[in-house]
Amino acid sequence: MSALDPDLARRLKRNADGLVCAVVVEHTTSAVLMVAWMDDEALHRTLTTRRATYFSRSKGRLWVKGETSGHTQYVREVRLDCDADTLLVRVEQTGPACHTGTTTCFDTDERLLLADPADV
Amino acid sequence: MSALDPDLARRLKRNADGLVCAVVVEHTTSAVLMVAWMDDEALHRTLTTRRATYFSRSKGRLWVKGETSGHTQYVREVRLDCDADTLLVRVEQTGPACHTGTTTCFDTDERLLLADPADV
């Protein structure tokens, strides 16, 4: 049983695993850092501690972002989307957000579709 | 069977429903517009037509964003994340991205956590 505010808990639309998607954005640059998942308790802890806390689908438990790496996220704002199944989390990121050491999880060389020639 | 490039198809890590998460960002402002889902065929069509195409979990079929509203998305860039289970899609959005008529799906008054007093 989570301590999440009951009004908020009533509104959340969770997936079959009881999770909502969290899109994490760097507060100053607006760069999309990563996507993770929250259950009710992760959201409750994120809102009350301002330390971004997710539910790890691989580990099957809560994890505070940066708990081992030190690359924590201080949470500035959390918004719920129109469908109540996705959160937009604005954070101040300490160090790289990605476990591979890059600033964001999308900083691979891997662009599936390059920008238009007009952009270059 | 999708026509998606076999190398890319091999690398994608789909959820139990065969989908990957797509975070959609406005090309010029970097605002997060919405989150949607793609199966292989949706991704193939998005990459080859540059018209953002998703898999609707509620309708159980592909949908071209804006097919009824006219609020289409011209795709400028698609990136895959470090885990190969999430796409970052940069688009030029025509009209509001949200079916409620707002610019983004996160433009509710609903902030679960307000920004720090220091921000105001």
Automatic annotation (TrEMBL), chains A, B:
Keyword terms, alphabetized: Amino-acid biosynthesis, Cytoplasm, Histidine biosynthesis, Hydrolase, Magnesium, Metal-binding, Zinc
From the UniProt record, which GO molecular function terms apply?
Answer: magnesium ion binding; phosphoribosyl-AMP cyclohydrolase activity; phosphoribosyl-ATP diphosphatase activity; zinc ion binding
Q: Which reaction does it catalyse?
A: 1-(5-phospho-beta-D-ribosyl)-ATP + H2O = 1-(5-phospho-beta-D-ribosyl)-5'-AMP + diphosphate + H(+); 1-(5-phospho-beta-D-ribosyl)-5'-AMP + H2O = 1-(5-phospho-beta-D-ribosyl)-5-[(5-phospho-beta-D-ribosylamino)methylideneamino]imidazole-4-carboxamide
GO cellular component assignments:
cytoplasm
Q: What is its EC number?
A: 3.5.4.19
A GO biological process of this protein is: L-histidine biosynthetic process
**Functional summary from the UniProt entry:** Catalyzes the hydrolysis of the adenine ring of phosphoribosyl-AMP.
Q: How does it assemble?
A: Homodimer.
User: Can you tell me which family this protein belongs to?
Assistant: In the N-terminal section; belongs to the PRA-CH family. Belongs to the PRA-CH family.
What is the protein named? Phosphoribosyl-AMP cyclohydrolase
